[in-house]
Specification:
The protein is an alpha+beta fold and about 300 residues long. The chain has helices spanning about 5-15, 25, 45-55, 110-120, 135-140, 150, 155-160, 190, 230-235, 250-260, 280-295, and strands at about 20, 40, 60-65, 80-85, 90-95, 100-105, 120-125, 160-165, 170-175, 200-205, 210, 215-220, 240-250, 270-275, 305.
């Protein structure tokens, strides 16, 4: 019996036959195009620990996987013995709306989590590009964020605590379940962006934020690169509730025009300014921004668009 066959037999005894995938079924869990010999779908942290312990004894390479949205990150592996998917770890273990914290398993999908939190008027302030299968564990392991990081920060700013399993099958908890919990080294940050190379993330406690009462996005399209600096200086000096500030090139502007159906002036670049607040606050911020743009000295007046 080969080493892989021995490992497969041991894993099947722990997980059951339905949670052990081989052949074409395992190929669906390829890492950057490299198909694994096996893929496993543990149901809880104890099974994750057992899988890692068995793989470690056989000196097999293990690749943790969430929803598969970020498997292209990092160096392409030469081979993949075993992919460990956390897709079955989908429980919300704790949720304290009054404390604005939640503890979830790594396989919880981002879209499902945001929908659950939204029912209580809250959200997780991470907004990376999502697919329906993107998991919170994958987002943290890949350190993915989005435009809202300007106001709310990245995973470093919302992750309060972690439970991880190392290759020898040991479970370790770092951080805590409350906002003010740091004593000693802040080990959470060690695992953020580690891509599963240090340990498998199985549970995480996250800080939440209230959903903003409203948002408005203003597009400032300009023609000359020299106008970017005065535009940025004018916008950033205003007392705005600014949660995002993104720069689009010409191709992105064309894609935005096609997606929204808004005819644009077809200039070279655009600043997207996203504001948040109550409706009357948004109107006041928008007026203030437009007045400032009219007074800003540029080579050519910008074209301004509004999306609410």
């Amino acid at each position: 019996m080969s080493t892989l066959e021995a490992l497969a037999a041991a894993l099947e005894s722990v997980l059951g036959s339905t949670a052990l995938l081989t052949g074409s079924a395992a190929a669906a869990y390829a890492i950057d195009g490299v198909a694994p010999s096996m893929a496993v779908l543990p149901a809880d942290a104890e099974q994750v620990a057992a899988v890692l312990r068995l793989a470690g004894e056989q000196q097999m390479t293990v690749f943790p996987r969430g929803g598969g949205s970020h498997t292209w990150l990092g160096q392409t592996p030469q081979q993949a013995d075993l992919v460990l998917s956390v897709q079955r770890l989908q429980q919300q273990l704790a949720y304290e709306p009054a404390d604005m914290t939640t503890t979830v398993q790594a396989g919880v999908r981002m879209t499902d989590l945001q929908q659950t939190l939204g029912q209580s008027g809250q959200f997780l302030a991470l907004d990376p590009p999502l697919t329906p299968t993107t998991t919170i564990g994958g987002v943290v392991a890949a350190n993915k964020s989005g435009p809202r990081r300007l106001l709310y920060g990245t995973a470093r700013d919302v992750l309060l605590g972690l439970t991880v399993v190392t290759l020898d099958g040991k479970r370790t908890r770092v951080g805590g379940r409350v906002v003010k919990n740091v004593t000693g080294y802040d080990m959470n940050k060690l695992y953020i962006g580690s891509l599963g190379t240090l340990a498998v993330l199985v549970e995480m406690t996250l800080k939440l934020h209230p959903l903003p009462p409203g948002e408005a996005t203003i597009g400032v399209e300009y023609a000359h690169d020299a106008d970017l600096l005065p535009l940025l200086q004018a916008i950033l000096h205003l007392p705005l509730r600014l949660n995002s500030l993104e720069l689009l090139n010409g191709a992105a502007c064309a894609a935005l025009a096609a997606d929204t159906g808004v005819p644009m002036a077809q200039r070279s670049s655009m600043l997207l300014v996203r504001l948040e607040g109550a409706p009357e606050v948004l109107q006041s911020q928008e007026r203030r921004l437009r007045d400032t743009l009219r007074r800003t000295v540029l080579r050519q007046p910008p074209a301004v668009y509004l999306w609410s």
